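Repro:
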Amino acid sequence: MKRIFALGLFLAFLACSNENSGQTSISPVNKKDSLLRVLTYGLSPWRGAADVWIAKQYGFCYYPVSGCIVTKELKDSIDNENEKVYQVLARQYGPGWKQAYTRKVDSLSALFEQVKEVVKSQSNIQQAGHLHDTLYYHVAPADSTHVFDVQAFRSNDNKLAYQFKVNLQTLQVNRVQ
């Protein structure tokens, strides 16, 4: 579970890089990729790869600015900056954008879980799981609606073991590597 969380955190950093790391103030827009930034602290509010993916579709990314210990001033500042971002998103997507966003994240998360189950049901993966302790998976949407890219990592050494393209509509799993 820790590895999955770490992988999700890594994806968040990839989805929203910071070119302004040397500056003392944080811009609400990432100058490199023009995504809006929702500032976070402590344990991040996003729930993994699906959250990062949908956030990018909505034009924002999660941007960690502090650990778990936060002063009232910093929390107030984060809340003020995030409110500006939320207002931009509300103007662009309507007042119910947060609910629609959450539904899309939940839906994509469910699809990711289905993809993982399809991959886990493959006999060669079941055998590999026994050989390598446990495999954990990174799932991302591919180039069409029902197709997903899957990377399977060995939990004992965190190395990439397999890559697949999975078609959820046909339940076809093709090994890429």
